[in-house]
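Report of the visiting student (M.T.), summer placement. My assignment was to run the structure pipeline on a short list of targets and document each run. The first record concerns 3-oxoacyl-[acyl-carrier protein] reductase.
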Amino acid sequence: MNMHHGRDLMLDRQMTALITGAGRGIGAAIAERLAEGGMNVVIHYMKSDEAAREVARRCMSFGVKVLTVAADLRSKEQIMEMRTKIESSGMQPDILINNAGISHYGLLSDVTEDEWDEVIDINLKGLFLCTQAFMPYMISQRYGRIINISSVWGMAGASCEVVYSAAKGGVNAFTKALAKELAPSGVTVNAVAPGAVNTSMLEHLDHDEMKMLEEEIPVGRLGEPSEIASLVYFLASPESAYITGQIISPNGGWVI
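After the run finished, the structure tokens were exported:
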């Protein structure tokens, strides 16, 4: 059998991508970039339905099929309901982008058990449940792309972001292990671990802290969501077939 059979098959039809947490920030930028590249998109959100509808409108302007779905990714039941809705609309994802996440800022000694559970559940358990729900279809067609949005702190660790760093470190290890498991099935698994990106996740920093942060980064500025999205777009494409199990960190030279 031709080793590239699955990939060649996919070049002939329109891809569909599911992006979790796509109502704002990096997730929204990814949805728009994929739509611009001709992919159908499923936009998942948890609470921000108005924001998700706005992202959907922008994606539709590229002439692709767009679906919005809501689910709490901590709940397997809600993920299964979301999958049923996606299946019944005929938009089974060939590409899964596990982007939904939350951060937590504060000393570890002050972190409550509930805060720990929330950060780990949304960043890591949600990723596990979504991947488990949507990978069987990719395996059955012998083609798929799973892209996990991690963080530079999953690689380097950050003071006052211990729980978030632990969650994203888990995402990185999950990525490497699953890549080995799914490689024979024609499914690649990679993580994108952004550095400091200009989104609401940095809104806890004041002007001076932001200035100091920019000075620490060799390229001298924050990243833009569109710059993360362009890397995700490449990893989502058929031509990235030989890249799997990698943690790629667009961070302006901050952490190497």
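The longest strand covers residues 40-45. The chain has a mean pLDDT of 94. I thank the supervising group for their guidance throughout the placement.
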